[in-house]
Amino acid sequence: MKTKVGLWIDHRKAIVVTVTEKGEDIKEIVSEVEKQPRRSGDSPLKGAYESHQVPADDSLQRNFTGQLNIYYDAVISYIRDAESILIFGPGEAKDELKERLEENNLGRRVIGIETVDKMTDQQIAAKTRQQFAELR
Prior knowledge:
Order of helices and strands: EEEHEHEH
CATH topology: Nucleotidyltransferase, domain 5
Strand order of the largest sheet: 3-2-1-4-5
CATH class: Alpha Beta
CATH superfamily: eRF1 domain 2
Number of strands: 5
Number of helices: 3
Distance between the termini: 15 Å
Shape: globular
Radius of gyration: 18 Å
């Protein structure tokens, strides 16, 4: 059975539309990525804001990158068996995911990457159906 996937992704969530001969399925994968990690310690309004209370920028970036990698791995595990993958979304996540797919030797399955804005689940499903109908 040939499985085709349309994937709308940003850093907060991924909407996966899987199209097979039996029909289509829509799944949402929510990321645990925190774009602006909270700083520990007291508020600067409550007293001295010492430098050791603020995490270093590189540790925040490492934490952010680690969370993204976990999120991308969850998406990849869900779409791993797809024969063809169309990736679209508004920001950098689509390109970052493509790099992860290439690292996992799945990059050749990506048939296209497109920049689009926010879409409803039905719009994502319609775009996926239209794309794969054109490839037949």
